[in-house]
Design a protein that fits this description.
- The protein is globular and about 65 Å long.
- Helix content is 3%, strand content 46%.
- The chain starts with a helix and ends with a strand.
- It contains one helix and 23 strands.
- It has two domains: 150 residues, S-adenosyl-L-methionine-dependent methyltransferases (Single Sheet); 194 residues, Jelly Rolls.
- It has 359 residues and is mainly beta.
- The longest helix has 9 residues.
- Strands 3, 4, 6, 7, 9, 10 and 11 form a seven-stranded antiparallel β-sheet that branches. The chain has a five-stranded antiparallel β-sheet with strand order 1-23-22-15-20. A four-stranded antiparallel β-sheet has the order 2-12-5-8, with no helix packed on it.
């Protein structure tokens, strides 16, 4: 039997006292399994030694700075295999406190260069000396989410910026990789805001100049952000995410990306991530013919959505304006109809956990 959202939340609220002020939160957890959508796959970490270690430092330039032009160079030997880049992932340092995000007005372009961390020029245009760069993310408003608790493993890149255009990387002796981020402003009035990202010394260098139109800047050798360059795949794991938080008396949207295009999906809502119907969670779905897939939430409510030609979709919950829901936790996961991907006929997304608040 499918319950209404109001009934589900009422059942959950019976275990919690009503609270006066609660900060609404939503975070992702767990992992999905491969489908046939187009999206992001393996993460190529640069500098390469940082794939297995934290950088030991943190920095706010360029993403959380005032308007700035920024370049960073990475050695081609850090990217020894050919692949198509389709996104940029960022990592927190393991030590700084959690920070709140804002919206950043930015553009990203990438290209080849023969410049190294030791020969990088202080003139931005001079560093693209091996062909015309590619604007992989035309100027856009990018929402930087609230940071989760600091990571404990280096593989935890909490935030990814998908690109509109891809870039084909091919290793060639003497050719390196250059990324440029141009920040035009942010929702913090264009001012610097604290949002520490993992940074490191070693085989990289960065150049930054004040303003989005800077032609020259300050050069720092052997220092820069740790970045993850995400590979394009056509067997992507469906991705659950959101750009809002669940607040009483408001609409809360859960979004889906990297799913099978022009298909359908079910969004699950539950009140537990540890058990359902007497069974422990997460539950391996191999017995249904979906090895490597797991159910991450109990199932108290199911709603259907359609995916578009890009493999994206969303579902919005109308949250009742009731103080008795403050502090209530709930869980989500998408099941994506993907015939042929396995005997079950479904791929699953990662999970989401929300806490209902009023601020």
């Amino acid at each position: 039997m499918r319950l209404s959202l109001r009934t589900v939340l009422f059942l959950a609220a019976t275990s919690f006292p009503a609270l006066a002020q609660v900060t609404a939160t939503y975070a992702t957890f767990g992992a999905g399994c491969n489908g046939t959508g187009t999206g992001l796959a393996e993460n190529h970490v640069v500098p390469a030694p940082m794939a297995g270690a934290f950088g030991g430092s943190d920095n706010s330039i360029p993403f959380t700075w005032s308007p700035v032009t920024y370049q960073q160079v990475f050695l081609g030997t850090d990217l020894p295999t050919a692949f198509t880049m389709a996104g940029l992932s960022l990592r927190q340092n393991e030590r700084p406190p959690v920070a709140h995000g804002v919206t950043v007005d930015l553009e990203i372009q990438v290209g080849f260069t023969t410049r190294t961390p030791q020969t990088m020029s202080t003139t931005f245009a001079s560093n693209y000396d091996s062909g015309t760069p590619v604007v992989v993310l035309p100027r856009a408003q990018v929402v930087f989410p609230d940071q989760p608790t600091p990571p404990t493993v280096p593989s935890d890149f909490f935030f990814t910026i998908p690109w509109v255009n891809t870039f084909a990387w091919a290793p060639v002796a003497g050719r390196n990789f250059l990324i440029q981020v141009t920040v035009y402003g942010n929702s913090n009035g264009g001012s610097i805001w604290g949002y520490p990202l993992d940074a490191t010394g070693g085989a990289t260098a960065r150049l930054y100049g004040s303003g989005a139109g800077a032609t020259t800047g300050s050069l720092e050798r052997n220092y820069g952000l740790v970045m993850g360059l995400r590979a394009l795949t056509h067997t992507a794991v469906p991705m659950l995410y959101t750009d809002s938080t669940p607040q009483i008396g408001d609409t809360f949207r859960v979004r889906l990306a990297q799913a099978r295009p022009s298909s359908w999906a079910a969004i699950l809502l539950g009140i537990s991530d540890t058990n359902w119907a007497g069974m422990s969670l997460p539950m391996d779905l191999g017995f249904l013919g979906a090895p490597g897939c797991a159910l991450l939430t109990s199932v108290e409510d199911v709603q259907r959505i359609n995916t578009d030609a890009r493999g994206t979709g969303s579902f919005s919950y109308a949250l009742p304006n009731s103080i008795y829901l403050l502090g209530v936790r709930f869980y989500n996961q998408f099941l994506v109809a993907d015939p042929g991907v396995n005997a079950f006929g479904f791929a699953v997304s990662n999970g989401g956990v929300g806490k209902i608040g009023n601020q």
